[in-house]
Amino acid sequence: MLATRLYGREDVRLEDVPDVVPDAGEIRLKVAHNGLCGSDLHMYFHSGANQRQPFVLGHEISGVIDSLGAGVTGVKPGTPVAVRPFLTCTHCDSCDRGLDHLCATPEILGCGAAQGGGLAEYCIARADMVFPLPQQVSLEHGALVEPMAVAYHGITRGDVERGMSVVVFGAGPIGVGVLLGLRALGITDVLVIEPSAARRAAIAALGATGVLDPASGDVVAAVQAHTMGRGADVVFECAGAIASFAQALAVARVRGKVVILAVYESQIEWNPYTIGRKEIELRAARAYQPGVYEAVIKLMADGHYPTAGWVEHIPWTALVEQGFKPLRRGERMKVLVDLER
């Protein structure tokens, strides 16, 4: 079968590899689409540390079940599915507490896991890692479940309620996912801060209350004016920049919440008094806890995740030139690689 494997920095190869066969408790799926995200860019351009190389890339996966390993019940070949790529140990303190997404020793499909990844004709996953898609949810949407689940989990960490004022920093895929998830839950007052004109236009079309360019005005003053001087009830930091982190704390109201979904490539220096002065709650969100995949798929079935204007498709053979490179330059928002041949 064909697969894209990462050999090192800026070295990926589409090549023949041995066919994968499901063991007991596993399924094999024929991959339809695989989304690209910041983790893929980091591994490609920086050859992320601690991964065994070469390995098959791709962790935002949708496809159709092709075959079943021994003992698998409840699903059958031909079923379209989304894949949760996290493999957990099942016995650490986090797993024992039902916080599988915070497992002490996780492996992730497409990020060095021995089981491979989604940039391949076929992919192996444990049976409990596949989620059947209802008829209303396309395989395109199936490949978006993973990043939308990251965003939705962040929303749950923010304890957002209807009537609250929300600010989102960053209109990349996770910022878009936060906006769409909030709107699906009935939260309509959402300001987005984004420096890219193309991304501002895209997220405005998706229903943001307002979109601000941090380079052309005082973000803190704008949020204060919008909220009649109170500040935002909840702030989602999805940009991963030093400036956006500082502004996220500044725009939060007294006893507001700031949820960090971004990954930062550099250290940030800050004074904890910044949050102490207003008793702001600073929270983090990593991946997604059990139940989030199902919630996102249901919302997709109800039509809450439109893809027009921010999701693009590319052929598998154009992975680098139409995928990694323009994504790094900020020229595209979300790219799905089409693996169906």
* Class by alpha and beta content: alpha/beta
Helix content: 25-40%
Q: Which architecture of the largest domain per CATH? A: Alpha-Beta Complex
Based on Cα principal axes, name the global outline. Answer: globular
Q: Look at the structure and give the mean pLDDT.
A: 93
Q: Span between N and C termini?
A: 12 Å
Q: What is the domain tally?
A: 2
CATH fold assignment of the largest domain: Quinone Oxidoreductase, Chain A, domain 1
Tally the helices.
Answer: 10
Q: What do we call the CATH homologous superfamily of the largest domain?
A: Medium-chain alcohol dehydrogenases, catalytic domain
Please mark out the parts with pLDDT under 50 across 5 or more consecutive residues, or reply none.
none
Order of helices and strands: EEEHEEEEHEEEHEHEHEHEHEHEHEHE
Strand % is: 25-35%
Largest sheet: 7 strands, mixed
Tally the beta strands.
18
